[in-house]
Fold this sequence. Notes:
This protein is α+β, with helices and mostly antiparallel strands. The protein is 27% helix and 27% strand. It contains nine helices and 20 strands.
Amino acid sequence: MASKFLNDHIIIDFAKLSTGDRNEINEMQKEFETHGWCFIQLPMENDSLGTVQKTLSTFFSQSPQEKLPYKSSNAFGYTCVDHKEGIKLLTDQYGIKSDRRPLLTDDVEQSLQHLNTLFNDWMNILTFIILKMIEKTNEELTVLSPFNMLDIANYFNERIGSMEQPAVGLNTNEVNCVPHYDPGLFSLSILSTCDGLQLQDRNDNKWIDGPNNSQSDQRNNIGVIWLGEAISVLTEDRFKTGIHRVVYPKKNNQARLTIWQEVCTNAQVDSLLENDDTPLVLPENTQIQIANQPNSEPLIISARNETLNTVMKRVENERGLSMSKVGVEHLTIRFPTTKKKPSSNSFFSTLLKWRH
């Protein structure tokens, strides 16, 4: 059977991967070595995800006041910032790690359990194939967490994108989420209800539109796999990081619901689970460069008594990236020449790179 394509990029067939089809595995590996991502045809019935989508959309359509009791005080569960809201969970082979967050409505919790079952089946197969590709020892793979991270995001999209998309996209004035690569091994995205996701074609240095599952020709469960920093490190950059971003849609007030799961690193999960109450105060005019945001500008500390915790929240509001995708190990802090770096024994400070 001839290969299928989306936006001039091959669509890998999950059914063939799961049977060990060598040609299909080689095609996927080629995409990983060239771009760090690939489109994938998933073997799922439309009705299954359609029910989940309807349940989640109904929950998100409630007023902020109605959703207030469900709002989490940490990184997990339901959270909301200026331009989007979402649900973030840790999962493993036993199910959803449900502590540290308020439970959501019964129908949403059932949908989350259903998603976890679907992802568990797919991720086990994909992880097995991908780890076999990179041929690493168990000791080398200890950087990987036993937890995966399930992300559900609902972008409000209260503005439309410009006719000519920005070459990069430096902040949420230009794009919904700035170009970046994730910290983990890889992610599998299974739903995007309108245009927005774009992936970088490294050969032509251009942005490729991801699947829009509301379009009639893309409803047949086309997803995306993008690789993270961990696999690039393990393969010494033989497998590229999948650089992606989210732009504003062509139509105004068209919310975008999207669902994906990431195979995480221990450092990535630990930084979220660690309850770091020690405020690391940064002096005015400190510059913070974020390594996993290619072509980004430094974040400037302009307010007095701004802490690293508030900076990480600024990154999500101003650049669209949650803390789970911007590990503190990616931060390089450059202090003003007249200032000394603050003294702190906090979890964050032990991971940071200090510059004068």
